[in-house]
């Protein structure tokens, strides 16, 4: 087993995930549904699905604010910095926002979901200018 750490932007909320290195994670999923676009403020949400028994809050649980989007699905944010943190949909899995992981996970994007809900401006990325850093 290996442990990877994650946190919010201000560091108030910290968690760890545990998994076997080979084959357990199914890569990063990019969800383009309207709820994920609203929750992230961007093109969607990059998530890593982790079995609930392998997810552990380490510190800062008093900084958690949970929003129930529907009876079986809630999202968590840090009440100090607003970072979106793990979403919980059922008793078996936790849906981590991949950008909150502090440690590399060694897998890339494997799946796009809810592409039918994709924003009309989130297309044709191959011809878009790219920069290694922000340009003035």
From TrEMBL:
Gene3D superfamilies: glutathione-dependent formaldehyde- activating enzyme (gfa). The keyword Zinc applies. The keyword Ribosomal protein does not apply. It comes from the Bacteria. InterPro entries: CENP-V/GFA, Mss4-like_sf. This is Gfa-like protein. GO terms for molecular function: carbon-sulfur lyase activity; metal ion binding. Coiled coil: none annotated. It holds the Pfam family GFA. Keywords: Lyase, Metal-binding, Zinc. Belongs to the Gfa family. Residues 4-122 form the CENP-V/GFA domain.
């Amino acid at each position: 087993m290996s442990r990877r750490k994650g946190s919010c932007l201000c560091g108030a909320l910290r968690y760890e995930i545990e998994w076997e290195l080979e084959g357990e994670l199914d890569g990063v999923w990019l969800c383009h549904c309207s709820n994920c676009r609203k929750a992230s403020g961007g093109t969607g949400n990059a998530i890593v699905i982790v079995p609930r028994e392998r997810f552990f809050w380490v510190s800062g649980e008093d900084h958690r604010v949970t929003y129930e989007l529907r009876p079986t699905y809630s999202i968590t944010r840090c009440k100090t910095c607003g970072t979106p943190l793990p979403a919980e949909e059922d008793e078996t899995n936790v849906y981590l926002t991949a950008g909150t992981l502090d440690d590399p996970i060694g897998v890339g994007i494997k799946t796009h979901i809810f592409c039918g809900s994709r924003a009309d401006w989130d297309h044709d990325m191959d011809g878009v200018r790219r920069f290694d850093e922000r340009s003035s």
